[in-house]
Write a structure and sequence with these properties.
Enzyme I, Chain A, domain 2; alpha/beta; TIM Barrel; 8-stranded mixed β-sheet; 3 domains
Length: 594
């Protein structure tokens, strides 16, 4: 760590949990683990295997002990995240890989663990989806725990630290076990060197509404205990030892944000309805049961998108029908939501450790993934569908199929669902016989035949993240072409309009669940296009409702007509922004940029 005293040093990371806080640094630095790599004789192989298996058991015992010690109810809701780590530790594929390396390479347990983990991490780094890529950190956390046990023994975990006052935790990274062991009542913020918005630290911080910035590169080497630090979780900014003037500015900003949130929370549970009476449902996109409290707090009418990919990740054995059923039943039993949309598996076989034999692909993002994979791997698909159907007896679940590009996929899927229903009926197991089946409109081909597709399903949900990328042939995370990612591109608006018009012509509802839904600037466009439902990050719902309640749909229709006459997305955005500044001067400052 540097001895240099930084004053007013600004660092940029990723805003992982909204809010602004200031406080003293509490540096959580364990120091690097020094491992010895050595070859061993045949007679030492069993000894090393025994050491590794003992470390596995010790790690499982540690994690179990941590879960049992959690007393705080708010924290306890998130202790289940540790289950994922225990599951990996108990997975034969992971442990056998290390044991095989010890036997075949004649190397010590530390070296074998290091070698196997490196291979796992390389696989995760190739994953495009940020949420799935972040799950590689689970493997890294397990590696760290096992290595500490092998090198230092079992006294390797963070104990309840004696954090004084409201401190800001600074760490290279925090595992779920680390986060849960800390006394969160004495923590006002988190900052880490690594991680993204979908890391466990970020998820827990958002759930507990603790400001957090992650991926700040080398902050652990730039701060020391008791430094003053400002954390801006909205802008993703950290300031080390800010001057009094800067602190005053941020205190003012903090007070403004708190006041704004207080006002927005008053809107959260009001009707999502325009001045002229048009109802636009506002739902939430989530991926963990632990987020259900946030969904209710911020006024979601339903779940527009429940991502199920996490259930499949980092396990050798595929989830069973009962694994799915227990998760979806907990969702379904919530009595405050009007609808809960379960999206079936939306990843390819390259993205999780499993028994599926998937050929290597040059471009997996446009290859064997989502419904294409499910129709090829029927046992995998039927286990999930059976779980959803069984849970549908307990609440308003809907099934949503991703990446549909043609009628055959829809018809085959419906036939499989009918088979599952027959099987449940034969077993005398309850399910909702009228469960709604919908599809995601995220491939341009689906938009072009949306009139045909609308005759086959109960609802549409537009996934703008992929629809925009596929329509404009750009990768939005590629810095060289990301500037071309334009939701207001005339081609994108026309495709959405066609899907909406075709859905309504066949009397089915149409939702939009991409990031476009969570950006208040685009709300007038979505209202003008006539969508029935939008779905977004739960925190965005109150702001979206405020905009919806301040508009008239007739006006929005006229605005969309004007936008569609524009030659470029830049012209469309200029018109839209000027109108929003006029109507909502406090919320859309003229100087704001998207």
């Amino acid at each position: 760590m540097s001895d240099e005293l930084f004053i007013n040093k600004y660092l940029k990371g990723t805003g992982a949990s909204s809010g602004i806080t200031a406080g003293k640094v509490y540096l959580l630095d364990r120091g690097a683990i020094s491992i010895t790599k050595s070859t061993i004789r045949e007679t030492q192989v069993e000894r090393e295997i025994h050491r590794f298996k003992n470390a596995i058991q010790a790690a499982i015992d540690e994690l179990g002990g941590i879960q049992e010690k959690v007393l705080d109810d708010d924290v306890k809701k998130h202790a289940f995240i540790i289950d994922a780590h225990m599951m990996i530790l108990q997975d034969d594929f992971f442990s056998h890989s290390v044991v095989d390396a010890i036997k075949e390479e004649k190397i010590n347990a530390e070296w074998a663990l290091d070698m196997v983990t490196s291979k796992f991490l390389v696989s995760f780094e190739k994953v495009e989806d940020p949420y799935l890529r972040e799950r590689g950190q689970d493997i890294k956390h397990i590696y760290d725990r096992l290595m500490r046990i092998l090198v230092k023994g079992t006294k390797s975990d963070i104990e309840k630290r004696n954090v004084k006052g409201k401190s800001i935790i600074i760490a290279h990274d925090l595992s779920p076990a680390d986060t849960i062991q800390l006394n969160l009542n004495k923590i006002s913020g988190f900052v880490t060197d690594v991680g993204g918005r979908t890391s466990h630290t970020s998820i827990v911080a958002r759930a507990l509404e603790i400001p957090a910035v992650v991926g700040v590169s080398n902050i652990t080497s730039l701060v020391k205990n008791n430094d003053t630090i400002i954390v801006d979780g909205d802008e993703g900014i950290v300031i080390i030892n800010p001057t009094q003037e800067v602190q005053k500015d941020y205190i003012a900003k903090q007070l403004h944000l708190r006041s704004q949130r207080k006002e927005l929370l008053k809107v959260a549970h009001l009707k999502s309805e325009t001045k002229d009476g048009f109802k636009l449902k506002a739902g939430a996109n989530i991926e963990l049961l632990a987020e259900m409290d946030i969904v209710e707090k911020y006024g979601a009418q339903g779940i527009g998108l429940y991502r199920t990919e996490y259930i499949y990740l980092s396990r050798k054995d595929l989830p069973t029908e009962m694994d799915h059923y227990h998760i979806y039943r907990k969702l379904a039993e919530n009595k405050t939501l009007e609808y809960i949309t379960i999206r079936t598996l939306d990843i390819g076989g390259d993205k999780f450790v499993s028994a599926i034999d998937i050929p290597k692909e040059i471009n997996p993002a446009m290859g064997l993934r989502a419904i294409r994979l499910c129709l090829r791997e029927l046992p995998l698909f039927k286990a999930q569908l059976m779980g959803i159907l069984r849970a549908s007896a307990y609440g308003p679940l809907r099934i949503m199929i991703p990446m549909i590009s043609g009628l055959d996929e829809v018809r085959k899927t419906k036939a499989i669902i009918a088979e599952c229903m027959d099987e449940l009926r034969h077993k005398k197991i309850s399910y909702n016989k009228d469960i709604k089946i919908g599809i995601m409109i995220e491939v341009p081909a689906a938009c072009m035949i949306s009139d045909k597709l609308a005759q086959e399903v109960d609802f549409f949900s537009i996934g703008t993240n992929d629809l925009i990328q596929y329509t404009l042939a750009i990768d939005r995370v590629n810095e060289y072409v990301s500037y071309l990612y334009e939701p207001l591109h005339p081609a994108v608006i026309r495709l959405i309009k066609k899907a909406v018009d075709d859905a309504h012509a066949h009397k089915i509802d149409i939702a939009l669940c991409g990031e476009m839904a969570g950006e208040p600037l685009y709300i007038p466009v979505l209202l003008g296009l006539g969508l029935d439902e939008i779905s977004m990050n739960p925190y965005s719902i109150p702001r979206a409702k405020k905009v919806i309640r301040g508009l008239e749909q007739d006006y929005c229709r006229e605005l969309v007509e004007e936008i569609m006459k524009k030659d470029s997305p830049g012209e469309a955005k200029t018109l839209l922004r000027s109108e929003m500044v006029r109507m909502f001067p406090k919320d859309f400052a003229k100087s704001n940029e998207d």
